[in-house]
Amino acid sequence: MLVSNLLRRHKTPAPTFAPGLFLGLLVVFTLLGQSKPTVGLVGIGTTLIVTGTLIILNRQRIWDDYRKGYRKSKGLAALWAKPNPVYYTLNVLFLWPFIVFLGIVCLWAAYMLS
């Protein structure tokens, strides 16, 4: 029984804390940037790069989970909440790479300040 548990592949749980952690880190580094701009810019830049990269790399899982969650809730009343491949493609191709670019700009600005 113990050997069979080692060979079985378990489904990894979805990170439920990620959106709150992202927003919390942005707030903390923004407040820290008021007194120490270089540290704030490095923190914001790193947070944006890591978050954008994780979302781009896990885009298919995020899309599948969102579609599955929408079906389970039997559809929300709002038109904007319905899973739309066009919005998904815009997010993956333009929004999150732009967020990563902003993170790189923050790191570059921190380097120029120091």
Structure summary:
By secondary structure, this protein is mainly alpha-helical.
Structural overview:
The chain has 114 residues and is an all-alpha fold. The protein has a domain at 40-64 and 80-114. 77% of the residues lie in helices and 0% in strands. It is built from 5 helices and no strands. It has helices at residues 2-7, 18-35, 37-57, 59-72, 85-113. The termini are far apart. The mean pLDDT is 84.
Most strands sheet: none
User: What are the segments in which pLDDT stays under 50 over at least 5 consecutive residues?
Assistant: none
Proportion in helices: over 70%
From the alpha carbons, calculate the radius of gyration and give it in angstroms: 19 Å
Q: What is the residue-averaged pLDDT? A: 84
Basic shape: extended
Number of H/I helices: 5
- The oligomerization state is single chain
Spell the H/E element sequence.
HHHHH
Beta-strand content: under 5%
End-to-end span in angstroms?
58 Å
Q: SS-based structural class?
A: mainly alpha
Give the tags:
mainly alpha, 77% helix, extended
